[in-house]
Amino acid sequence: MIITKTKFINYTKCPRYINKDIPTEDLSFDEYLEEEMNMNFEDMLSEMGGETLDEKHLKTMLPYYNEVEREAAIESQRQFTGKFNYSRKTHNQTKFECKINNLDYLCYVDVYNESAEINIIEAKSTTINTFLKIAKEPIFKKEGNIYNLLSYEKIKDKMTEKTYDKIKSKLLDRFSKPGHYIYDLAVQRYFIEKKHQSKKINYYLAVLNPNYTFDGTYKNKMPNYSPNKTGNLINLIDVTSLTEEYQPKVDEDRLLLEKYLDKYLDHEVPKDVCCPNAREIECPCLDICFDYLPKQNSIYSYLDSSRGFKKDGINYTCEDLIKKGYYKIVDVPDEYLNREKNRIQKHSIKTNTSYIDKAKIKAGLAQIKYPIYHLDFETFPCPLPRFKGEHPYTQSVFQFSLHIQKEEGKLDKQKDHYGYLAKDLNDHRLELVKTLCSLIKDDGTVLVYNDAFEKTRLKELSEIFPEYKEKLLSVRNNIVDLLNIVKSNTKLYEKLGFTKEQASLPNYYSPNMNGSFSIKKVLPSLSNLTYEGMDIGNGVEALITYANFNNYSKEEYNYKYNKLIEYCAQDTYAMFEVLEGLRKCVK
What we know:
This protein is α/β, with parallel strands linked by helices. The chain folds into three domains: 2-264, Lambda Exonuclease, Chain A; 292-353, no CATH class; 359-586, Nucleotidyltransferase, domain 5 (2-Layer Sandwich), CATH 3.30.420.
């Protein structure tokens, strides 16, 4: 039976994977590649801010991940000498196998380098910040373009040993974000070093440098990511010592895997079997493990549920309360609810009524002046910068929607709508900026939902196009966040004269919101407008549609282009509907 690196990681993460992805006696190179891609794409989507990828999404993002791997190979050749083996085709990559207790463990490495020593380099679509930002004081030191973990002795003047150990423990926790990547390579090391090796082997992660700024040079119509004054596109991290520390844990996990295979390979995993990390990691088996929890308003839908609950000075997690038989929001006794916002939620659901703080909503609405420019951007956070001035995962704006409302209660969905959508995958940002600046005047309010996103995009565009900087920053300064009027904003409402306690509580909450203040959750309670039945219904579908512009037939392209306009227009019209719904609530 073949156990790949991906199967090893998944099986030891959750035994239910064995029933979902049964190991076989043979494995084709394409099957191995598909396993690896699924795992790598989930990591990529996490960086992009998405949720899950289907087969169509995977196919769309494959070229971008291939480019990350290729750039990792190029950077490796800058750093090391000797013989290299790298191929976009997995079956040409260096393969390692070992046999333990009649199980065949198998992995391929992205980049294999051999001279006096062997270097194993694995490309990951995360950024170096995943590792650097785990501590206020750096515990990695950059030498050339390689980051090395500092020993405590070298930084003991900056932190206590206890603090250092606590930070390092994140790197050695396979379920933390940085630990997830290091554990992945540690499993490979385990497979590799079970076979006799005559040379010392070093292990590196190749990750993206978020500060790298593409200078806009192309070669054969493809971006040329040569090092420039902002650094190298790819950084390497030496995780040799960390993967070594992981080896006892990997060995424990191998024994656990063998136990799971013995128990569950030919049997369904019983429903009462639930791994302790199910709620800390993304797992496709959650619906099975937690099938007793309701889809709507479960205990996990409590606002700030991750901070736990308290009774008689004792803290309780959601898991603690589930063990007591409290599955739904309304099940939890009031004495555990030490946050007023949670009591508001429970009362709203129990009475099936919306909670409305009229005074705060009125004060928030008073900040809006006409005309209102309802604005929404659609972006493509490509792992690699595509255009001049962009960084890895820059939210590259390819579309905006604008509804211009001149008076209260009146807005025509079609006649009052304006916008811009790039016609292909070339750089149309300047044209987009010109169109936006011509439509939004200096008067009135620019209304958005969750202003951090639009404000950041406008700031980025103002730096890339300095000739429009003054106008773009003026648009930015006129932004009012509709989310603040729905959810609240403590600093804003304190300035408006409310106490800190009042300011921190939600302004509006409906039983249908299920613990979320996203506009798609808020909208059904305040309007009859719906996204149901739309060909493009969320931001991930929008960016995937845009990314496939070059792959459509002419007929498909025209259809998809119009559907993208329709989707983005729905987002800005939804803001109008929420705004009017709030006005009706307080009249």
